[in-house]
TrEMBL record:
This is DUF3000 domain-containing protein. Residues 1-20 are annotated as: Disordered. Pfam families: DUF3000. It comes from the Bacteria. InterPro entries: DUF3000. It comes from Streptomyces morookaense.
């Protein structure tokens, strides 16, 4: 990932084209003004096509001592006509990956814990959201033949989407409210750091559980 640590560049899909709705421009501007932890590398990337009339995508990685501990993608979707399943005109979609230590990989409650980290990150930032859904997948790999020297590995994957709800007064009937995308991005970065095994805000907090950091680079 080419982005410098701790900032978001405009990228190729910077929502500057003609015909872009003002509310979408404002939502993207919110994503571009967030201060990030230095361990996070974040950059804009071309969004997937045909998911919505307007979209903006980010890719991120948590990097410590040149080792990537977790990575993910966050996509902002906007449909001015509204979407029944979204309950509004905006939707956020995410995919996050991280490798696990053996002791965490064997925890039968790991999927539930990881999902609670997502909802907990949003609630900790006090950002309203609706219609959340997703999956948590734990995938184990065992190596054979020419790869048999590698240790078995396990990877966690979180796929989720939710509708950012505009804070404050009720959204007008037209649904043209602008959600606080900066707060949603901050919550998403909190989740990314937590699944990477970093303590919140750079210091441990009582009652907060994170994935143990991996011990040194692993072969892939």
């Amino acid at each position: 990932m080419a982005a410098a640590q701790g900032h978001l560049s405009d990228g190729p899909d910077d929502a500057d084209g003609e015909g872009i709705p003002s509310v979408f421009r404002q939502a993207v501007a919110g994503l571009q003004g967030v201060r990030l932890r230095p361990e996070i590398e974040l950059d804009a990337t071309p969004p997937p096509q045909r998911l919505a009339p307007f979209s903006y995508a980010l890719e991120a990685a948590v990097v410590v001592d040149d080792e990537e501990l977790a990575d993910g993608r966050l996509i902002l979707l906007h449909d001015p006509a509204g979407h029944e399943a979204w309950g509004g005109t905006f939707r956020l979609v995410t995919l996050i990956h991280a490798d696990l230590e053996e002791e965490m990989a064997e925890d039968p409650l790991l999927p539930e814990v990881c999902w609670s980290w997502l909802t907990g990150a949003l609630e900790a930032r006090r950002v309203p959201y609706a219609a959340i859904s997703g999956t948590v997948t734990r995938a184990s790999s065992h190596y054979f033949g020419g790869l048999q020297e590698r240790e078995p590995s396990t990877r966690i994957e979180i796929r989720a989407s939710w509708s950012p709800v505009r804070p404050g007064p009720a959204v007008p009937a037209s649904g043209q409210g602008v959600p606080d995308t900066a707060a949603h991005l901050s919550a998403w970065c909190d989740l990314l750091c937590q699944i990477a095994g970093l303590p919140p805000g750079g210091a441990p907090e009582a009652g907060v559980v994170t994935l143990p950091q991996r011990r040194g680079p692993q072969s892939r």
